[in-house]
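From the methods appendix. Each design record in this collection lists the tokenized structure first, followed by the designed amino acid sequence. Records were kept in a plain field format so they could be parsed without special tools. The example shown here is representative of the layout used throughout.

RECORD:
FOLD TOKENS (197 positions):
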């Protein structure tokens, strides 16, 4: 029993340190961009040592990947929360679209997930992060909305990938001052076109 308490304490301390580093890195990546943010800047903002940073993350790129994953998971959680029980599959897709735009309006998400993410990690790695989060939700939603028609899994994935690109482009336009309702309506028209075929 006495042995478990210190382990839990060490784990909690480790989790707190990791969260502080992620929070500091997130703030700097958003404010300055990946290229202009140095690891000394991050550890200073976190109030940690470089040793603590490198204990949790191999390098700045690995730290950026962890920040991007955390942001992608938060976006996916917002989408999934919007698609509550009682909605038709079409309504759930439209609610998820609106939730995506709301989630992407959070400070820095467009920069991290759409602008810097592919430049830093590459499009394949960002696609893998997306596939584990929002892309999966989109594929499931499309499959349900198109039923009883079914698409070959590769076609469903390609369709979701193209629709996801439209979502990202709309998020960029909204971040630049575009009307969310306009883009939510346009995405709704795209979804209706897809599920009607």
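DESIGN:
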């Amino acid at each position: 029993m006495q042995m478990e308490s210190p382990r839990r304490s060490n784990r909690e301390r480790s989790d707190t340190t990791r969260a502080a580093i992620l929070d500091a890195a997130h703030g700097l990546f958003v404010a300055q961009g990946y290229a202009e943010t140095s690891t000394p800047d991050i550890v200073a903002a976190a109030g940690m040592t470089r040793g603590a940073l490198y204990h949790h993350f191999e390098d700045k790129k690995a730290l950026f990947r962890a920040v991007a994953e955390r942001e992608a998971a938060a976006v996916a959680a917002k989408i999934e929360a919007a698609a509550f029980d009682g909605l038709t599959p079409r309504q759930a897709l439209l609610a998820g679209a609106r939730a995506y735009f709301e989630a992407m309006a959070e400070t820095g998400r467009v920069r991290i997930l759409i602008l810097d993410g592919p430049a830093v990690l590459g499009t394949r790695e960002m696609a893998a992060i997306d596939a584990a989060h929002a892309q999966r939700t989109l594929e499931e939603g499309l499959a349900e909305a198109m039923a009883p028609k079914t698409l070959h899994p590769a076609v469903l994935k390609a369709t979701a990938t193209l629709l996801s690109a439209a979502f990202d482009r709309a998020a960029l336009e909204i971040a630049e001052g575009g009307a969310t309702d306009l883009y939510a309506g346009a995405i709704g028209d795209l979804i209706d076109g897809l599920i009607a075929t």
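APPENDIX NOTE: Residues 1-57 form a domain with the Arc Repressor Mutant, subunit A fold (CATH 1.10.10.60).
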